[in-house]
């Protein structure tokens, strides 16, 4: 079998896309994954050699990282697949000019500051000039980065995390994802606003899985306790992807809350697909990406304010008996990771 080295800044298993690239390519390639050790619980995958480089040496930590890349890519036929690594992607290309190499872009900058965002995207475009082979997550992002003539679309995928058919006698809502830069406070306020209305309704709850910047999770937990909703809203913190099944099994409505900004608009939402593949209808903010996915058979589109979250919850509850887990899953099968990585395999066989 041929060899492929996948390089990313994330510890193995904590970036979903590269995890599934490895899962579905490991029977076709000898795979080595090189990433940082972020001190998170170790995730392994049979057939994949995972290397997590220590980050405790300050700015000098890049030396052992690049040394590892150098040693693992010595064979000129080894494919080097880089999930965009800011300021290092071009350097890895330059130290291994003879290896077939792919730059994979999963996101543009999502910084709030417009100038910082422009700088980061400009750096990305400059680094992309060093690559002949580029894959990118969506047409919208390709256009934004002016790579549409050069890049191949490698879309987002999902797995069936939960195969159970959902019971809709109650409304057990689930948000999974980062808390950083997502304005999740609006979801909490909208949930509180809904509960404050004098409506006889079915039992309802909200579970939030994920973490954000230092102190953010504690601040949200304290706010929920302050407004008296700690019996209805549960925070789980960070849960490794391979441990999400029982969480998805026990919930029946997904929350795909993404702020309505230009820098998030074209970004395909991982969790929207994962909720749908698990048979869950979704309350999703009205981004361009979500509008291509969500319809009256699988969810509800909303704005980003707390009041619109409240209205969305009310509409979802009124429609709960309308949904079918089986129909929701069937309509999303084109987005299964196995199919997407099959296409990636064909692409890799033909790269220059």
Could you characterize the architecture of this molecule?
- Helix content is 36%, strand content 19%.
- The protein has 352 residues and is α/β, with parallel strands linked by helices.
- The chain has 14 helices and 13 strands.
- The two termini are 18 Å apart.
- 39% of the residues are buried.
- The protein has helices at residues 16-25, 62-72, 89-95, 114-128, 139-144, 185-195, 216-226, 245-249, 262-265, 270-277, 288-291, 306-319, 325-331, 337-349; strands at 2-7, 29-37, 48-54, 79-83, 101-105, 133-136, 151-153, 171-176, 204-209, 233-237, 253-256, 282-285, 299-302.
Topology:
Blueprint: E1 2-7, H1 16-25, E2 29-37, E3 48-54, H2 62-72, E4 79-83, H3 89-95, E5 101-105, H4 114-128, E6 133-136, H5 139-144, E7 151-153, E8 171-176, H6 185-195, E9 204-209, H7 216-226, E10 233-237, H8 245-249, E11 253-256, H9 262-265, H10 270-277, E12 282-285, H11 288-291, E13 299-302, H12 306-319, H13 325-331, H14 337-349
Parallel strand pairs: 1-2, 1-4, 2-3, 4-5, 5-6, 6-7, 8-9, 8-11, 9-10, 11-12, 12-13
Helix pairs in contact: 1-14, 6-12
């Amino acid at each position: 079998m041929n060899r492929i080295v996948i390089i990313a800044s994330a510890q193995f298993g904590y970036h979903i896309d590269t995890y599934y690239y490895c899962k579905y390519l490991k029977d076709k390639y000898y795979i080595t994954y090189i990433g940082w050790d972020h001190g998170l619980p170790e995730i392994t995958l049979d057939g994949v050699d995972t290397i997590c480089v220590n980050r405790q040496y300050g700015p000098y930590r890049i030396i052992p990282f690049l040394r590892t890349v150098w040693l693992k890519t010595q064979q000129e036929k080894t494919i080097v697949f880089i999930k965009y690594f800011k300021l290092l992607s071009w350097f890895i290309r330059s130290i291994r000019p003879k290896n077939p190499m792919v730059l994979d872009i999963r996101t543009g900058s999502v910084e709030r500051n417009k100038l910082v965002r422009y700088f980061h995207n400009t750096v990305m475009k400059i680094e992309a000039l060093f690559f002949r082979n580029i894959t990118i997550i969506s047409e919208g992002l390709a256009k934004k980065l002016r790579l549409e003539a050069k890049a191949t679309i490698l879309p987002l995928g999902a797995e069936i995390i939960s195969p159970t058919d959902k019971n809709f006698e109650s409304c057990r809502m689930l948000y999974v994802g980062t808390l950083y830069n997502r304005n999740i406070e609006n979801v909490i306020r909208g949930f509180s606003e809904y509960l404050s209305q004098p409506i006889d309704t079915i039992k309802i709850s909200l579970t939030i899985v994920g973490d954000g910047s230092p102190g953010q999770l504690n601040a949200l937990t304290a706010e929920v306790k302050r407004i008296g909703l700690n019996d209805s809203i549960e925070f789980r913190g960070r849960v490794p992807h391979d441990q999400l099944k029982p969480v998805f099994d026990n919930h029946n409505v997904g929350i795909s809350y993404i702020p309505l900004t230009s820098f998030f608009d074209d970004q395909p939402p991982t969790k929207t697909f994962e909720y749908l593949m698990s048979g869950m209808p979704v309350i999703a903010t009205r981004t361009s990406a979500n509008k291509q996915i969500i319809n009256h058979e699988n969810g509800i589109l909303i704005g980003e304010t707390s009041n619109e979250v409240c209205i969305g919850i009310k509409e979802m509850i009124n429609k709960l008996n309308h949904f079918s887990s089986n129909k929701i899953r069937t309509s999303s099968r084109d987005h299964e990771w196995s199919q997407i990585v099959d296409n990636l395999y064909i692409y890799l066989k033909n790269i220059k």
